[in-house]
Amino acid sequence: QVQLVESGGGLVQAGGSLRLSCAASGRTFSRHTMGWFRQAPGKEREFVASTGSGWGGGRILYADSVKGRFTISRDNAKNTLYLQMNSLKPDDTAVYYCAAAPRQYSSVPSSLVSSYDYWGQGTQVTVSS
């Protein structure tokens, strides 16, 4: 069982930056594939970024809409996942969720909601124009 708590959301002007954090409980964080997703009002939850576990070299995957602007990273010593968001746009406004996949020791990231069993409560990001 993995419990996740996001923080770092807020209101920012277009072109600004925010860094989201996701603190994980337990001692298995480093073994899990992790991801960031977001959900805007009236829309389905969509993939943002994912990183495989560090075992065997964790690979990273980004949605095309955030590639070059967002960076996912993890600090396994602190049990924390990050999402650095730069050059923010109004279209980035959403509730952002971090998620952990049940599979362990996989370097392969995943963009599928169905790959993840554990979810945080979400943090609101609002980008004003």
Measured as a percent range, the helix fraction is: under 10%
H/E order of the elements? Answer: EEEEEEEEEEE
Number of helices: 0
Low-confidence stretches: none
How much strand? over 45%
Shape: globular
User: Total number of β-strand segments?
Assistant: 11
- Tell me the major beta sheet: 7 strands, mixed
- Summed over residues and divided by their number, the pLDDT gives a mean of 94
Structural class: mainly beta
- The Cα radius of gyration reads 14 Å
How far apart are the first and last residues' alpha carbons, in Å? 40 Å
Descriptive overview:
The radius of gyration is 14 Å and the shape is globular. A hairpin with an 8-residue loop joins strand 5 and strand 6. 0% of the residues lie in helices and 49% in strands. It has no helices and eleven strands. Strands 2, 4, 5, 6, 9, 10 and 11 form a seven-stranded mixed β-sheet that branches. The chain has a four-stranded antiparallel β-sheet with strand order 1-3-8-7, with no helix packed on it. With 129 residues, the chain is mostly beta strands. The mean pLDDT is 94. The termini are far apart.
